[in-house]
Write the structure tokens for this entry.
Amino acid sequence: MELYLLVIYDISDDDLRNRVASFLKTMGLRRIQRSAFLGPTTPSLNREIEAGIRRLVRGYDGVNVQMFTLTKTCYNSRIVIGDFREPEDEIVLT
């Protein structure tokens, strides 16, 4: 089964927010909204990303990061209202 990881966050500190975004990109995720990243995943990659984010945000207050593992069916059944934005680098979910 193909799995995808959706990571959303609310981080007020600009430097930390940029470091989290850069980390998610290096882990193979692509930005789909300003504070949302998506990409193919595995259970071990999920653990690696979770550990990396925990390290980055340690000691910061007011941080909210949420990770959702989605099946291809879940992703394809989403409802988009408003302007649709293709993920950066046009991630292809086949």
Observations:
- The domain at 3-90 is CATH 3.30.70.240 (Alpha-Beta Plaits).
- The CA atoms of residues 11 and 25 lie 17 Å apart.
- Residues 43-57 form the longest helix (15 residues).
- The chain has three helices and four strands.
